[in-house]
Design goal:
alpha/beta, 8 helices, binds 2-phosphoglycolic acid
Length: about 220
């Protein structure tokens, strides 16, 4: 059986109090026991909550790792407002790079994205690089890609598992080890994606905001 990577992207949601509620509810993941074996869980909260998620997961011995949703395209230095890979590494093992929301709303370019990958790798973060088609440029050194077609993000209209599978197969031809599917994944449809030969996990936005629903996705994956 293949190992699955199941990633929660909390986007720009949750205050500290709401995050604590989410984490308390997420403790139930332990009750799944054997059901989580072969499934690696990564939770990507906003920067302000990275420390809280990291320490709560460690203190409660929860089967999950932490990822950031973004990272600076600069190394440490005089870059007011930026959070660099070396800083992120204190709290997280993974980082999302190139989400379509960032490409669209913050005009992130291919050149910036490859700097983000370069610094992530320099400081030992594992990047999860997001693309919306199998033709997007994938920077050197990326091992995990998430395929998220634009029409499927936050729309309740996922891609078909067959289409996602064939896009994933093409992405894997580019020296990529794991391809995740993202876009309107929920507890009911997750298995149709993770059951596909070339799909190694899922990246979940909306349905991860409720810890119970996210646990349902892990359980059914
Ligand atoms: P969604 O978002 O699950 O709400 O469609 C996925 C994502 O944007 O990563």
């Amino acid at each position: 059986m293949k190992n699955l990577l199941i990633v929660a992207n909390l986007k720009s949601y949750k205050t500290e109090i709401e995050a604590r509620e989410w984490l308390e509810a997420f403790k139930k993941i332990k009750e799944l026991g054997q059901n989580t074996s072969g499934k690696e869980i990564v939770i990507c909260p906003p920067f302000t909550l990275l420390s809280l998620f990291n320490s709560f997961i460690l203190d409660n011995d929860l089967p999950a790792k932490v990822g950031a949703q973004n990272v600076s395209s600069f190394d440490e230095g005089a870059y007011t407002g930026e959070i660099n890979a070396r800083q992120v590494k204190d709290f997280a093992e993974f980082v999302l790079v190139g989400h379509s929301e960032r490409r669209r709303s913050f005009n992130e370019t291919d050149a910036e994205l490859s700097k983000k990958i370069e610094f992530s790798l320099k400081y030992g973060l594992e990047p999860i690089f997001l693309v919306s088609s199998n033709e997007d440029i994938i920077p050197h050194g990326v091992k995990i890609v998430a395929y998220e077609p634009l029409f499927a993000i936050g729309t309740q209209t996922p891609d078909t598992p067959e289409n996602a599978n064939s896009a994933s197969a093409k992405i894997k031809e580019k020296n990529v080890e794991k391809v995740l599917y993202g876009g309107s994944v929920n507890p009911q449809n997750v298995k149709s994606f993770t059951g596909m030969e070339n799909i190694d996990g899922v990246l979940v936005g909306g349905a991860s905001l409720d810890a119970k629903e996210f646990i349902g996705i892990v359980q059914n994956a």
